[in-house]
Amino acid sequence: MTPAPDLVIDGTATIDGATLFASLTLTLAAGQWSCLLGGSGVGKTTVLRLIAGLETGAEFTGTVTASDGLSVPERVAYMAQSDLLLPWATVAQNVTIGARLRREKPDLARRDRLIERMRLQDHLHKKPAELSGGQRQRVALARTLMEDRPIVLLDEPFSALDARTRADMQDLAAEALQGRTVLLVTHDPGEAARLGQSIVVMTQHGLTPCQPPHAAAPRNVDDLETLETQGALLRLLREEAA
């Protein structure tokens, strides 16, 4: 894997002439987790899709640049809120789908290591319908890691999980994505407080940073500073909504 770069998203977006988000500059530090929060419809997913080079339905005036000057979309792995697993494929096949679609030979040894890391070795030949929600999300995370990209975009990937499974997945993701430049879009102040090394609240009018806890992520859910950051984020989100 090539070294993870800093990323800078600078610009504004409109839909049919109406402002989606005003001029903003969002900087993602190399090798760190940045968390982006905000209400529905302010453009958080649009930012993710702009970084990934995907269609957004919006008109973007601005730039997405990497500190090393190289192209960004080719170095992105994306994990959506829905696991997007192929229902007819096994766990092993879903994890390697990227290479297969590119007509490349998948690294089966790497696949097996990732599946074991996600504690899925006993489910290798099962199909998604035979898995729990948490297991499906672990398959999706393994598939994301299989791409071995330095930039990882996470669009509320754990929001549909129960509290215990969500905490387990957060821990797994934090461990597995060390050294990557990660952008996590979330509605959950607690998740941002646990995982964020940089935390920003987005509105139609711009960005408001929030000081993250000093402890290394993932932080304990009952850590005092984590709880204080969670509370500060919730207050900020409520103020913005009002």
List keywords for this structure.
single chain, 242 residues, alpha/beta, Rossmann fold, three-stranded antiparallel sheet, 34% helix
Strand order of the largest sheet: 5-6-7-3-8-9
Give the total of beta strands.
9
Number of helices: 8
Termini separation comes to 44 Å
Rg over C-alpha atoms, rounded to the nearest angstrom: 18 Å
* Biggest sheet architecture: 6 strands, mixed
Just name the CATH architecture of the domain at 7-82 and 149-241.
3-Layer(aba) Sandwich
What helical percentage do the residues reach? 25-40%
Helix/strand structural class: alpha/beta
Per the CATH scheme, the topology name of the domain at 7-82 and 149-241 is: Rossmann fold
The CATH homologous superfamily of the domain at 7-82 and 149-241 is termed: P-loop containing nucleotide triphosphate hydrolases
Mean pLDDT level? 92
Order of helices and strands: EEEHEEHHHHEHEHEEH
Oligomer: single chain
